[in-house]
Amino acid sequence: MNSSTPAAVILTDAPKIPAGARTWRLAAWGLTAIVTLSVCYSLVRIPLQVHDSLIPILDAQKHGSVSAALTSSLRSRAYLRPFRMVQIQVLFELSRGHYFVAYKGFHVVLLMALFALVVAALRIRTAVDFLVFSFALTVLTGMHTFLGMVWEAYPINHFLEIAVFCMLALVLAQSGGGWWIDLLAALIFAVASLTLESGLLVWVVIVSAWIVGLRGISTRGVLIVTALVACYFGLRVYLSTGSPDLLERASGFGLHRLERTELTRRFADWPYPFYAYNVVCSFLSVLFAQPREGVWTLPQEWITGQVSMGTIVNITSSLLTTVLIGWSVARRARGWFAWRLEPADQIVIVALAVLAGNSAISYGYTKDVIPSPAGVFYALAAFVAVRDALYWAGERARSPVVHVALGLIMAVAASGWLVRAVGVHYLTHRIGMKVRNEWVDVDAWLKTQNEWPTDPAGVRLVETLRSDAVERDVVNTRLIHRWRDHLFR
Amino acid sequence: MVPLWLALVIASPGLLWAAAIVVLLLAEVAGAPILTAPSVTLSEAAALGDKGDIVRLVGRAVDPNRRGYVRPGLLGRDEYTVTPLEAAIGSHRSDVIELLLDSGAIMNEGNYQVLRCLAEESRDHALATFLERRMRGASPVDCSTVKTPW
Q: How many angstroms away from the CA of B142 is the closest CA of chain A?
């Protein structure tokens, strides 16, 4: 036994490589490359955003240097996100005027990294692995939390970055280990946590992976990262960063989206029910595709008599997959109590930890993209669950009735996820058109935000970005049949 | 032993998706795209209220006063050949009309009556008031004598 592996953890699924493993691994990489290419294609059809992107880009121009950007962001109230601004600044400097190429190019790299890390984490070895992986890919891309990682940009999609860091942490934990793995783990935690508060999830991945016996990141590495967590909170106190006003933006609640004034009226004195609601909603949203951004869209649509096909597809596919995951967890739980963990158990437990951590971190407000790391890990758990179900059907369940029932469940779930995965392309095109239209009114918008540049260079930058956005060919989704709006949600 | 048919049931949507992507990409590379983005005329962009397309087409020297084709379903069941300003009435958005006017579209005594009557017919009183404000001093309009495109 490996000296770093605790005696309590018995890896029953010893790493024996079956014949043909290389072929199936290559097939998985090929399949991933195709899907990644298509998602990246849709991504680059979206112009840079106005809301969320333009002001940080103008700030980068004003700062003029990385050190100025860093200093400025350290003075920020409520948020400790220095690497966010540093990254924006670095790309701004490197772009040499080609802003779209720089920011979208980085976004594409992040997406590629995410897909690659998912393949690496799942360790495809057999034909069954490969077939189930093709399902997991549709879950990954079809998940409603995934869309926000594609279309949103600030102008870097930091939620996608955090998901990449979380997956990288898992892959490092699965690795053979070494001092440089520990160093890398510490580094990615530092960058992630100083980019976005959700970066703390990297610690959740590292610790939960260590607990279940994934020792690529050693005990020393886990201790270092845990010390960095303490340093992170210490730094927040030292810089008097404080915390954001948690009722500072509109958020879904019940059947409606409530504006700030309404949220303040209801929860300013006692905000804890609102926080609890957000945590529960984020948790349920990943598992059941309801509620969306804090709003229970199914009953809302039911009341108005307009239940969309997309809502039904989303809920059905998520529900069936979550039931399969739940069934798989129940079957595996006996081994967990005896602390006999297979690699598949380790993935599922880490996924559950990420889901819990991600939900907790979403307490401030709910938005589909916030639990995106949990969405990625949900796809990993779905992979394990479906593979379990297939082996169970082959080895334990001999009844044809059980096979047919399982086949029906899988057919409905897989078809639903396919619809959702295809919908990502339609929805990104629709968003692309919306973003391009927003650029036309950018002057007015900047003025309402009191951010209209006062210097000629700033005005030129806005003009450059606007003409670049307006000249981009986007698909006019309003000319496409309206049923797609009902199907893709 | 895993039942193959069950494994294929779960895998086939994902594999079909990947195959479709490959076919679409190959067709694109071969210069025979299967999925093509529908292009719009300036009048269609105005009818849809797509300001991005309006700015892009005007930037490509499309005349904002020239009649253009509008496909069925955008202004009604039929197809029409109308000016961008006329089509913009169908979008029910004064900001689109404003943008067209800023982009060189001309509203004068000649076309004001048609525009105003289109707004009246679609019961868009806010738009009718907006047009009236923009054409302060224009003669009163009697829509019973004005022929509108739809």
A: 34
